[in-house]
Amino acid sequence: MDVVKLDQALTLARQVADSVDILELGTPLIKSEGLRAITAIKAAHPDKLVFADLKTADAGELEAGLAFEAGADLVTVMGAADDDTVRGAVAAGRKYGKDVVADMITVVDDRVSRILEVSKFGVSFVEIHAGLDEQARPGYTIQALLDDGQKAGVPFSIAGGITVETIGSVRAAGARVAVAGGAIYNAKDPAAAAKALKSRAS
Ligand SMILES: O=C(CO)[C@H](O)[C@H](O)COP(=O)(O)O
């Protein structure tokens, strides 16, 4: 949910809840509304996993702990961050019995090597991710993300402009989670878009 207001996020979450397993709060939403957004989404959807896309770059244990205290079930730490930042987030995950995901956004050179390194630190999975700015460049395709997931051979999710046309290939590549943002929140009918994505992913 890359919206910036909590009321928009609550509306979107309600619209798509029947078709998603995880509700992910995008980084802009958390920056705009703060940790209270995590608490509010979890309170409204206690049956869903709530994923706080913190993209933590430093102070991993502190930031992950704040999000877990607020109600998050999963958080992201930057895969490109210092090793101890990733380890710190994982330590918080162990303390709270929750999951930490290493977001590989911005890691493009020798991405598979870094995926293998951070996987050893105890993250639950890695998110192989092309961000919104990378996706906007001409010629972008999701294929390089899928190829690296298959090469790495560790649990992974994919984020990078997944659509109803590409989500089948994400599943076929073995991804544990498909993260779909714009394909849902930019759709005229987010509920129908989420349902269509889910039907192609199952
Ligand atoms: O984390 C993000 C951007 O940094 C997005 O939430 C993620 O990429 C999913 O959105 P989309 O499907 O529009 O790419």
UniProtKB/TrEMBL annotation:
<dbReference type="GO" id="GO:0004590">
    <property type="term" value="F:orotidine-5'-phosphate decarboxylase activity"/>
</dbReference>
<comment type="pathway">
    <text>One-carbon metabolism; formaldehyde assimilation via RuMP pathway; D-fructose 6-phosphate from D-ribulose 5-phosphate and formaldehyde: step 1/2.</text>
</comment>
<dbReference type="InterPro" id="IPR013785">
    <property type="entry name" value="Aldolase_TIM"/>
</dbReference>
<feature type="domain" description="Orotidine 5'-phosphate decarboxylase">
    <location>
        <begin position="1"/>
        <end position="197"/>
    </location>
</feature>
<keyword id="KW-0119">Carbohydrate metabolism</keyword>
<comment type="similarity">
    <text>Belongs to the HPS/KGPDC family. HPS subfamily.</text>
</comment>
<dbReference type="InterPro" id="IPR017553">
    <property type="entry name" value="3-hexulose-6-phosphate_synth"/>
</dbReference>
<keyword id="KW-0456">Lyase</keyword>
<dbReference type="GO" id="GO:0043801">
    <property type="term" value="F:hexulose-6-phosphate synthase activity"/>
</dbReference>
<dbReference type="InterPro" id="IPR011060">
    <property type="entry name" value="RibuloseP-bd_barrel"/>
</dbReference>
<dbReference type="GO" id="GO:0019854">
    <property type="term" value="P:L-ascorbic acid catabolic process"/>
</dbReference>
<dbReference type="InterPro" id="IPR001754">
    <property type="entry name" value="OMPdeCOase_dom"/>
</dbReference>
<dbReference type="GO" id="GO:0033982">
    <property type="term" value="F:3-dehydro-L-gulonate-6-phosphate decarboxylase activity"/>
</dbReference>
<protein>
    <recommendedName>
        <fullName>3-hexulose-6-phosphate synthase</fullName>
        <ecNumber>4.1.2.43</ecNumber>
    </recommendedName>
</protein>
<dbReference type="GO" id="GO:0006207">
    <property type="term" value="P:'de novo' pyrimidine nucleobase biosynthetic process"/>
</dbReference>
<dbReference type="Pfam" id="PF00215">
    <property type="entry name" value="OMPdecase"/>
</dbReference>
